[in-house]
Sequence to fold (214 residues):
Amino acid sequence: MARERPAGGAPQRPGGERTGQRTGGDRGPRGRDRHRPRDRDERDSSLIDKLVHINRVAKVVKGGRRFGFAALVVVGDQKGRVGFGHGKAREVPEAIRKATEAAKRGMVRVPLREGRTLHHDVIGHHGAGKVVLRKAAPGTGIIAGGPMRAVFETLGMQDVVAKSFGSSNPYNMVRATFDALKRQDSPRSVAARRGLKVSVLQSRRHEGDVEAAD
Fold:
């Protein structure tokens, strides 16, 4: 004889609970991700983005040429985190949106001295592009041009002197700038690598500066 099923159609467990029902203690997808969208929105609201370059591109197909747009966007929180992204689409807003999302996914943290400048001078390369970034005294401002200025402004850097050599392509300049920023080291990270205290490392640096001045 076939066993009868409840009116709802779902089988019951020994305790009388239907297998299709969710109990109060069950953490489903809705309960698990309930606070994540709000946190993501708060992080996104603190980010600023700058459109560095936009270019019209063409794809040759059987019926002719199909035109689109390529966008280069830089995103940062002005507190030491920055990223860049590249996006292509048939319309300009969609290309900018894709580039912005790619920039948010690829953000990196850069150590800043006193939250305003670099810890040391550094050189970056990418392809035929080369950039030189130098630390600067308070009040110097951002002395850089074009794509590099957008990176520094979104990063939150206030004093820096930058010079670009070789390729003037915006993509090469931005990638070379990020290559230089990734080479930046803070006294804390250097002291950790050498097994020293930050105070000892800084005292040695001060002694070396005095000897060089003499």
Observations:
- The longest helix spans residues 198-213.
- Residues 187-214 form one domain.
